[in-house]
Design brief:
Elements: H1 4-12, E1 19-20, E2 24-25, H2 28-37, H3 44-51, H4 70-73, H5 80-93, H6 96-107, H7 117-131, H8 135-150, H9 168-171, H10 188-192, H11 214-232, H12 238-254, H13 260-281, H14 297-307, H15 310-325, H16 329-341
Antiparallel strand pairs: 1-2
């Protein structure tokens, strides 16, 4: 595994911002880390060089966020650069593991922030740091946490005092699909706002039991939405439905640093956010028959690298990650299907 490729990628991306093109997330550090995780560090530099041409520059911090006043800046994207400064300060004073543990708990209700990209960027940075602790990787963690905090958004919910009793694979049948006339167009974040005022969605978060052992819960969750991807993906919703798998899978990378209570919240809100994407973009909860001719790991990696789409790379790596702990062919089939559709 060529971990030095990650250092080079972060150096190349040091002056880039978290978004570009009017609200699209900067996937470069995440995709670079995914390539390294798939033992394709050799492909990182050329890929980042191509991708960074589209990126906007880094915004400038204007007003520091005081440690005791962070809640006032939560969800204010105009403060994203201020959040970066804030988290760089946090990481200079505490271990990165401690910072993740504290802020995963605080930010979990807004886990859907920027269509999961805040938690995704944080999780990729955490895994990168677990391999090698460097200043560049800590700065990338600050960028991920800042994006999560600045984009913080809470989905509609009527939280009850009792947890649900279902696994995600059971609860998916009870998620109402957003009517066509309420479905937004454009960014995923815009589409998710269509759930505001949609009463059938407000109880979704409490359908599942987050007290289930976390690793098993996540395997059931990601397998459910990999199946949902295969049943629902078409030309207009592929990227959205990809995030219903990659987002929840990113939680697995944060579990080692989260308290038991934070773990439960991450599971609850991870399910809710994935269900929100399904409600806004899905058509059916019926999974149908699967092709048993699943591709192997090496074939999938080569397809993703050759495709070069950022979502193809990240989705393939997430599906392989989940397959490693829950060896169901649906992950491999979903990865192949996505790469074919993203051409």
């Amino acid at each position: 595994m060529n971990t030095d490729a990650m250092e080079q990628a972060l150096e190349m991306l040091a002056c880039t911002g978290p978004e570009f093109g009017g609200g699209l997330a900067n996937h470069a550090p995440m995709a670079a880390e995914a390539l390294v995780a798939m033992n394709r560090g050799d492909a990182v530099t050329a890929w980042v060089e191509r991708y960074r041409r589209r990126l906007d520059g880094r915004p400038e911090s204007r007003k520091p966020i005081a440690s005791a006043e962070w809640q006032a800046a939560l969800g204010d994207y105009s403060r994203v650069a201020d959040w970066v400064v804030f988290f760089n300060r946090e990481l200079s004073e505490k271990s990165w593991r401690t910072v993740i543990g504290e802020w995963a708990a605080r930010l979990s209700p807004g886990l859907v922030a920027a269509a999961f990209h805040g938690v995704l960027r944080t999780a990729h940075a955490a895994r990168s740091l677990s391999r090698k602790e460097t200043e560049a990787r800590k700065r990338e963690l600050a960028e991920g946490l800042a994006y999560w905090a600045a984009s913080y958004y809470v989905l509609p919910s009527t939280r009850t005092s009792r947890a649900g009793s279902l696994k995600p694979s059971q609860a998916i049948k009870q998620v109402a699909l957003l009517p066509a006339e309420r479905r937004g167009r454009g960014l995923i974040t815009d589409a998710l706002r269509g759930l505001e005022g949609f009463e059938p969605f407000t109880g979704v978060a409490d359908l599942v039991d987050p007290n289930i052992e976390a690793e098993r819960f996540l395997s059931d969750l990601t397998e459910t939405f990999a199946r949902t991807f295969l049943a629902n993906a078409h030309s207009g919703n592929v990227i959205a439905l990809i995030h219903a798998v990659t987002g929840p899978s990113s939680i697995r990378l944060l579990l080692p640093y989260a308290t038991p209570e934070a773990r439960r919240d991450l599971l609850r809100y991870g399910w809710q956010a994935a269900a929100a994407i399904y409600s806004g973009y899905g058509r059916t909860a019926e999974f149908g028959a699967q092709d048993d001719d699943a591709p192997n790991r090496e074939e999938l990696i080569e397809r993703a690298v050759s495709n070069s789409d950022d979502h193809a790379i990240k989705f393939t790596e997430a599906c392989l990650r989940e397959h490693a702990v829950n060896p169901q062919p649906v992950y491999l089939l979903a990865a192949r299907n996505a790469v074919e559709k993203l051409i």
